[in-house]
Every structure is written in C-alpha cells, then in structure tokens.
Amino acid sequence: MNNNSKNLTETLTKKILFKVPSPAMGDTLCSTPTIRKLYESYGHKIDVMAVRDDVLKGSPYINNLLKLENEVTGYDEIFDGFVRSIKVNKNMDSKDFYDTPIEIKLSNFEARQIHALSLGISLYPEEMSCDFFPDEPTQKSDMIDDKCIVLHVTESWPNRTWEVKKWQRLIDLIKENTDLKVVTIGMSHSESGYFGDIEKKIIKLTNVDYDFCVDEDIKNQGLKNNRYEISEMWHIINNAYGLISFDSGPIHLAGTTDSWIFQIGASIRPEKTAPWRHSSQKYKFEFIGGECKLFCGSCPKYSVKEWGTINSMPYYPNCQENYSEFKCQPSPDEVFFRLIKNYKNV
Predict the structure, then answer these.
(1) Which residue range is the domain that position 311 belongs to?
(2) In sequence order, what are the beta bridge partners of 263?
(3) Quick one: 64 and 150 in the same domain?
(4) Is residue 1 domain-resident?
C-alpha cells in the first residue's frame, strides 16, 4: 500500500466531531455549510454536538447528533464552531502568540464564516447555502399557500423591533390593497446572547388571517422550540409567497426554502445577514432599509469610539449615532411597496 492509499484509508476511518455551541436557531443553521464541508472533505458522515440539536436533525451529513458537552474523548479530531476569539501569532511564528486574543465581531463577521473559521477555512459563494431537513407537513402548514405572506412578529433587540402600530399599519396595507392572506408566526421565549439574556415576546395584532404565534410563560418555557415547531415553521414559510421579518432565525430558515424574503433593515449590514441561495444573496431577497445607511452596528469605528480599541464590539442594540429613533429602519409603507412591487410581477 502506497502512502496515498494509506492516508485515504485513515481519513475514511477517522472519527470527527464538530461542536456547535450556538444557542440561537439562526446561528445554528449557519453551521450547516461547515458541517457539509467537513462531510465532503473527509468523505464520510461526522458526529455533531449542539445546543440546538433540534435544528440539525435529519442531516445526511451527520452520523451521531448529540447534546453539547465540554469534555469529549474518543475522537481523532474535534472542531469547535462559532469561535468567539482567535489567538494571533507573532511574526508568523507558529509557537509564539500575543497574550491578548482578537475578538470575532459577531455584528461584523459573517455567521457562516465564523463556523468555518474553526477549520481554518472560508466558504465560497457556492458553499454558503444553509441546510434544513424538515419532517412531514402538518395540518396547520397545509393551510398555507402562495397567496399568503408570513410575518415574524417577535420582539428582539431594540434596533430589530417594530412597535405594534407599525406592524399593524403593514398588515392593514396588505389586507386593503392585495389578495394576500396574512400569517403571523413567532414564539415568546428567553434567549441568551453576547449581550446577555433577552425576553423575546410576540407582538399581538389584528386583521390577521392565520395567527400561529405561541405566547407562553417565558420563564417556564426555556428552549422549548422543538423539532416539530421548527419543521412546521419551515413548511409554513415554504408554502407561502414569502416572509417579512427583521434579521432573525426565521430569515435563515426561509433561506432554505424557495420563498421570497423581505428583510426589514436595521443597523447590521445585509451582507452579513442575508441568506445565500444559488450562490447569491440576491435570489428572491429584498432588503428594505431606512434613511440612515451607516450600519453602525457593523462598523468597527464605533468599537474604537466606545471602547478605545478595534478589538471590541459596540453595543449594537442601541443607535451609535444617538438618534432618538432608529433611522436605519424603514417605514411600514416602504416595506409594503417593496412587497407589492415583487408580488405584482409574479
């Protein structure tokens, strides 16, 4: 056996583990291009440990899907996804590093590339699409067709949330001027992130045809989002004409369907958040921003302004220009006109 054959045989029998510590649905979905890349590179299925293992079930690239644990043995190679900082070596010396690690700016660095960074690689446009493998449709999702528009109406950070009257204005415009039925999705839950815990409550609205929001006691719910609920959401979005939402988990989930995506703009650049489909971030995707185009949440100069160093991240839920309102957000009328522009062309 020559060395090439020996190396190939060893590679095909290597036990590989990829760990996905992301607590959010969208960030976990963003790990799927790297999981697929590992499968293609080693030529066999790999094991995956994840906080949100419900998001990854059914993947043909995964052998064993496990709950995340810190101490793991029995693997030839272990990779940690969603790295938060990196060590930098001095003068290209692989054994000598600076004491202070470089922080990965989650508001600036592309989420899919953050997962790939743990392998020391970057993903190319044709590799950037995410995967989701749904269960069978449900009775609820079968009620939805391409004459429906889905609105994700859960509160988030202040810069990624509309007040009730804005959502209601958008719904009323849709109902008064189109034949589209309005579907609302969302779930009250508590989520841990880089800036601490946040309670994400659903926004209650009227003039809705199908209200599929789940409003439960946040404290008792925890991570109750289970496989059934995510898969059902996938079918609802997939069956509908499209989804309207701020940057969110459902935006990434919609990126695994063929439906239209209308993303309401905020302070983060759309290049960071827009799903990739068919090697593009423009396929059936509309980003509707406001009058402010600074994207302060993604701009490193605000890190220097707030902390005195680029090796940090500004508190991007707030407006870094201290405006009294989020001028990076569009009005409901602007979102409606972008929707109708595309819907009339179908």
Answers:
(1) 141-343
(2) 245, 287
(3) no
(4) no
Mean pLDDT by 10 residues, the chain (346 residues): 53 88 92 98 96 94 91 91 86 83 86 93 96 94 96 87 95 97 87 62 92 69 59 97 95 97 94 95 97 91 90 82 92 97 80
Q: Do 70 and 174 reside in the same domain of the chain?
A: no
* CB-based contact 233:226 (threshold 8 Å): no
Burial bucket for residue 182 (CB in 10 Å: 0-12, 13-18, 19+): buried
Exposure letters 106-127 (e unless 16+ CB within 10 A, then b): bbbbbbbbbbbbbbeeebeeeb
Instruction: Give the model's pLDDT for residue 222.
Output: 43
Distances in Å between the Cα of 133 and the Cα atoms of 25, 74, 137, 308 are 14, 28, 12, 44
The closest alpha carbon to 119, from 82, 86, 165, 79, belongs to 79
Q: What radius of gyration, in Å, describes the C-alpha atoms of the chain?
A: 21
Domain shared by 115 and 152, yes or no: no
